[in-house]
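Just scan my protein:

——
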Amino acid sequence: MPGPRPDGDSREILGVGLIGAGPVTQAVHLPTLARLDSMFRVAAIMDVDRTLASSVSDQLGAYAATTVDELLANPAVDVVAICSPNRFHADQVIAACLAGKRAVLCEKPFAVDLNQADELATVIAETGVPVIVGAMHAFDEGWTAVLEAWKDRTPEFIRSSIVLPPNERFEVLATELVTAVAPTPSVAFGIDADVEKVLGGVLGLAIHDLPLIRRLAASSERPRVRSVRVLEPFGYLIILELGELIIELHAAMTENWEPSWVLEAIAGDAELSVHFTPSYVHAGSATAVLQTAQDVSVFSPGLRNGYEMEWEALYRAALEGGRPDAGPLVEDLRFALAIADDAELLLRDEAAITLEVVA
């Protein structure tokens, strides 16, 4: 357990164990935790790459682990952050809950299929361990302020537009990365490569905004993808319907000078836009604008970003206890997976038709 606070503050400092020592841990969570040192201290860092785990943990005076079991067995670890590849998320969340940790922060997506999600919901209910998914936009103060002002309006159109340079540009600005062995590049080609790009885009980029789109839509219907296009060198353009609502998901990763990440919604009497900072950028909250026929409300950026807010939410959840409800997390995942599944089917159907025409 964490020791007493040297400054006399009565708040408990929670020990954090991070699973995965790659760029997300180094460039997102460690700088954030450094700003929240009145709530957290890094107790342990785990990575299967022993050299990487040791190099990162040594900078912080933290314990270096090479297995999840080793990290979870460490009594100094109160809460766990899961920053490993997507396919490991569900099993590691379950392991952390069963180990009796006080709370878990899991990078998105917290599962890769609905069977995993349902199993997770059961374990969360049985153990009472609160789990937060690291969709930082959902915690952003600019977003939460404009959502409250939006009230119960019914949108007719929603667009998520993401135009960014590669992540590496922002990773190196956030911290001095301790690099690991580069991952093996994909060997997919043709339609498989296109599917891989779109699925990676939906579950890697669009998923930041999909929970927000669900809140705006306020619909329990299943989304239906009507068109999908792969953009080179990496990106997508997806049009989907949710009942009468039209939703556009657009992303392009290029060497452009100015990054842009905007969520827009248009209703009969109002227009909302939220301008987020790129991932890995620690520069305060989003700037949000709500325009009606009567006035324009601007929600200026606050000093705290979504990363800090999600960690503060985790801190409160760990201290307050209670019986967490994983239902909203499962529904957010169901929404994302439906879009990913439809997009894949549409791409493969179009490729098959093209082959038939050529033949």
In short: Residues 231 and 252 are 7 Å apart (CA to CA).
